[in-house]
Design goal:
about 130 residues, alpha+beta, Glutaredoxin, 4-stranded mixed sheet, 6 helices, about 45% helix, Tscrpt_reg_Spx/MgsR, ArsR family transcriptional regulator, Arsenate_reductase-like, disulfide bond
């Protein structure tokens, strides 16, 4: 099952929700500002990142700027506790399933969440337009 981690006032989160809905892709919404974020959710997301926790940190946030100097010395459990406490430091949207992760949103990168039949339609369409 796909999970969409979002914040209400985030334009990219809105676009991600609209994109998933437009393709009738079932997903669960988790409001980063309000909903409980479990340690297992964070561990799963982090297991799919390339650069660990840095991939999900919002460097523009006030809390990031205030505390980033201590991140290098923090353990994973300390960082997860920090993220649970200061949720504004989490980049959104985050789209995740069992094996795929997307932090932020662009349609091109989100296509990895499309079911195969949607991908085939897209590639057929692109091939037809390229031939013209």
């Amino acid at each position: 099952m796909i999970k969409l981690y979002f914040i209400n006032h985030c334009y990219s989160s809105k676009r991600a929700r609209e994109w998933l809905t437009s393709y009738n892709i079932p997903f669960t919404e988790i409001n980063v500002a309000k909903d409980d974020l479990s340690t297992s959710d964070f561990l799963h997301i982090l297991s799919l990142t390339e650069n660990g926790i840095d991939d999900i940190l919002l460097e523009r946030s006030t809390m990031y700027k205030k505390y980033h100097h201590s991140f290098e010395e923090s353990s994973l459990s300390e960082m997860i506790s920090f993220l649970k406490r200061y949720r504004t430091v989490i980049r959104t949207p985050i789209i995740v399933d069992e094996t795929k992760l997307l932090v932020g949103f662009t349609e091109n990168r989100a296509r990895k969440f499309l079911p195969r039949f949607h991908k085939n339609i897209y590639f057929d369409f692109m091939a037809e337009n390229k031939a013209e």
